[in-house]
Amino acid sequence: MDILTYLQGASVQFGPSGHERETAEWLKARFEPLCDEVTIDPLYNVLATKKPTVKPKNGGHAPKILLCAHMDEIALMVVDILRDGSLRIGNVGGVDPRVLPAATVTVHCRPDSGKPQNLLGVIGAKAPHLLTDEERKLNYKREDLYIDLGLPVEKVKKLVHVGDLVTLNGQTVGLLNNRAAGKTMDDRACIGVMLEAAERLQHLSHAAEIVFACTTQEEVGSRGAKVAAHTVNPDLAIIMDVSHAPIPASRPDTTVPLDAPAATYGPFIQYKLLARLQETASKNGIKLNAEQAERSTGTDTDDVQIAREGVPCVLIDLPLKYMHTTVELLDMNAIRECGRLCALFASEIDEGWDDELWI
Amino acid sequence: MDLKTLCDMQGISGREEKVRRVVRDACVKAFGADAVALDGLGSVIATRKGSNPKKPRVMLAAHMDEVGLLIVSATEEGLLRFRAIGGVDSRVLVSKRVRVGYDTPEKPSLQGVIGAMAIHQQTAEDRKAVLPIEQLYIDIGAKDKAEAERTAPAGTLATFDTLYTPFGEGCVLAKAFDDRVGVYNLLRLLDAPYEGDLVFAFTSQEEAGCRGAVTAGYRVQPDIALILECTSANDLGETPEAQQVCQVGQGVCVSFMDNASIGNADLYRAMLAVGDQNAISHQIKQFVSGGNDAGAIQRSGAGSLTLALSVPCRNIHSPACVCSLKDIDSQEALVRAYLKSI
Fold it and tell me: What angle do CA B155, B159, B160 make, to 5 degrees?
């Protein structure tokens, strides 16, 4: 898979939390050639199943593995149309208001009649020379910013409705050293990891049934994953989400290096499964760093772990810089290596994988 | 020369050569090589000799340069520290893409991004305080200091990575409208009918403190100078009316005063009358702010009558400036009509 091409395609799909249908359909088409069955559930989760290619070694129960990464993106919403035709904005997920001044956005209009229409918008703020000295030291608050559509107010009122969704624009670009930057790398880059794993599994035999779940509504609380984990009913799960790579302002012990995936340790992570993952990595020369989560992981893991009667989980983090901006920056080699790790790990899960899991 | 080409060009103060080249060529084509000079600051001065020496000597000026970023060092991690050339509010830089270096046929510019700490990792203090330019950096993906310094040594320039694009109804979005709209209109005015001497000055380094206009004004010594500029509009987001500068779409903005100069009062009234008589949409600049080449030209040498005519621009000095095509046209039309009136 050409990772940059995938990232460029994935990052522009429309998919704010709760509105992921278009992204789901795009992803379904990516998984279809690689899996036996791909469905979209009522929450727009994409569930792509790859059936076992070999029988369990003693003819018993084939374990089921859930791999999971979320497809939804953070976004904005129109909350008011002002008299001058500009729009006030609200949040769908954690958009950092610092990224907004002079950002370009797409307003997704759903007029009462006629076709939905996408409008280009620019986020404006009070000009700096009109601010007081005190105001100049403070970041703009989201409530103070507005979207300019370049349209007369009558036209805006005809096209735009309160509640219309607004996505951030930002083309994904390749940088030096096989790095890339763009929007929605969180977490569509990790779906790229799953596609990379699915591709590699075409050439590996596996006794387990492997289900790739592209989940929805993670940014508003892992709501898609909760339902996906119920439906899939896995024996074990690998969750993949992004984490923070170091930048000059980082505080100690809050980051992992950019160039390799990292595995999380902590109470929400099944420790023996983690050890197994680390062993697979070291056996195959895959660099795997470690990251702590002393409580909630802040990812789909939190909900997958407690689905039905409980699911042993591992969490793999794909580090990136500048999370929740439109220039989330990552190392494409880390995506490739992470995909290789997932494929190898899943291919080695066989009957008896949990014999000594808890004691 | 179309506006898109001019806006998409890279030309930061002191490094206007790309704009200079096309402007010089257009002027040479219009008036012949002898009529076109480059002065000691790289401004292009094109003189169209008049047939009637009784008419005032008129200078039309627009600046070629734009605001941008100057790389000053690389960190151990391979990130590029920078300073702003011209007035760039650091708040518009976070989460934006830039082109590092100037494009050449042999070597395209490099893609870079300006990131900042993720919202998840910010303290309450981080969220409040504006990140100053000194704490921002450009990430080109370099692995370490050596690679960064090799690829983008100190002195490398970076421009906003924005391409000119139609926007809304009759508007356009681009970087560098300030002041490529002026350059664009000056080029359109090369054929404007006028019997007196008409001098076109494409100045350099306005954003670095109106440097080019000082020497251009000195060289030209006009009787009357019209400065074709771009000004902050600040007309949206329910800005109190008293703080709005001008309205995008309501025509060229005639300025009685800004922070650098007071427009000549007679010229100001004459200009409004020309606008009214010719039904050219125009408005009065409602708020005293900014400053431009008019200040430098007004007081260079023995002095001259100056007036700034500005195209309203939203988000000026940012990667996403918005102007109205009608306003751009009205700037050109007003100057043309004024020349006819004197």
Answer: 150
CATH code of the region B3-66+175-341: 3.40.630.10
Separation between Cα atoms, residue B189 and residue A209, nearest integer Å: 73
Tell me if B94 and A98 make a contact (CB, 8 A cut-off).
yes
Helix (H, G, I), strand (E, B) or coil at B274: helix
Which residues of chain A does B285 touch, with a Cβ-Cβ cutoff of 8 Å?
Answer: none
The chain B residue lying nearest A178, using CA atoms, is B141
Q: Buried (b) or exposed (e) across B248-287, using 16+ Cβ within 10 A?
A: bbbbbbbbbebebbebbeebbebbbebbeeeebbbbebbb
Per-residue pLDDT for B290 more than 90?
no
- What pLDDT, on a 0 to 100 scale, did the predictor assign at position A207? 97
Q: Quick one: pLDDT at residue B270?
A: 97
Q: Is A4 on the interface with B (CB under 8 A)?
A: no
The A173-174 sheet, strands edge to edge = A173-174, A179-182, A328-331
Question: Which one-letter DSSP state was computed for residue A141?
Answer: P
Residues from chain B contacting residue A181 (CB–CB below 8 Å): 97, 111, 113, 115, 139, 141
Q: Does domain B68-160 have CATH number 2.40.30.40?
A: yes
For residue A89, the chain B residues in CB contact (below 8 A) are: none
**What's the CATH code, domain A75-168?**
2.40.30.40
Contact pairs from chain A to chain B, CB under 8 Å: 203
Q: Domain A3-73+183-347, what fold?
A: Aminopeptidase (3.40.630)
Write out chain B residues lying below 8 Å of A244, CB-based.
118, 120-121
Q: Which of A104, A250, A326 sits opposite B320 (nearest CB)?
A: A104
Domain ranges in chain B are: 3-66+175-341, 68-160
Residues of chain A with CATH 2.40.30.40: 75-168
> Given this model, what pLDDT does residue B243 score?
80
H-assigned helices in B32-141: 124-128
SS3 B172: strand
**Tens of pLDDT along B102-134?**
999 999 999 999 999 999 999 999 899 999 999
Q: Which distant-in-sequence residues (6+ apart) come within 8 Å of B200 by Cβ?
A: B27, B44, B45, B46, B47, B48, B59, B60, B61, B186, B189, B190
What number is the ipTM of this complex? 0.87
Q: Is the pLDDT of residue A113 over 80?
A: no
pLDDT in tens, A276-296: 999 999 999 999 999 999 889
Catalytic residue among B16, B66, B147, B206: B206
CA closest to B233 among chain A residues: A127
- Nearest partner of A78 among A91, A65, A68, judged by Cα: A91
**A131 falls in which pLDDT band (50, 70, 90)?**
confident
Known catalytic residue: B16? no
Min distance A129 CA to chain B CA atoms (Å): 7
